[in-house]
Structure to design on (119 residues):
C-alpha cells in the first residue's frame, strides 16, 4: 500500500522558516519524481516545486524561487521542502506527491500538513 506522510508544518511569523518532510513507502521511490503542492483556504491546489528522479534538477513556482528549496534522500525515501522568508501568502496545506515533474502525471498524494504564516 502506498503512503506519503508529510510532517513539519506549523505556525510561524512572517520571515520565519519551516522544513517540511515527506516519507514514502509502498512504491519504488527512486522511479518517481517528487512534487510539493499547496492549497490555500478557499483556493485550488497549486504546484510549488518538483525534483526529478535523480534529484539533479529542480523546478519552482516563481513566487517561491529563492526562498524554498526541494531536496530528496533516496536512501531514506524522503523528500523535503525547506522554506525560508515565509510570507502570509504561503499559508496553505502543503501536500507531497509522487510524480509531477515538468508537468508530468501525479500518481500518489499525501494527506497534507498545514503551514500558517501570521503575525
Amino acid at each position: 500500500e502506498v503512503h506519503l506522510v508529510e510532517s513539519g508544518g506549523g505556525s510561524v511569523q512572517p520571515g520565519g522558516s519551516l522544513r517540511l518532510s515527506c516519507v514514502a513507502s509502498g512504491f519504488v521511490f527512486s522511479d518517481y519524481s517528487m512534487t510539493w503542492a499547496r492549497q490555500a483556504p478557499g483556493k485550488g491546489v497549486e504546484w510549488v516545486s518538483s525534483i526529478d528522479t535523480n534529484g539533479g534538477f529542480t523546478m519552482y513556482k516563481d513566487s517561491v524561487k529563492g526562498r524554498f528549496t526541494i531536496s530528496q534522500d533516496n536512501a531514506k525515501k524522503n523528500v523535503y521542502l525547506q522554506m525560508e522568508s515565509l510570507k502570509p501568502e504561503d499559508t496553505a496545506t502543503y501536500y507531497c506527491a509522487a510524480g509531477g515533474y515538468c508537468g508530468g502525471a501525479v500518481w500518489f498524494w499525501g494527506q497534507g500538513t498545514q503551514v500558517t504564516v501570521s503575525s
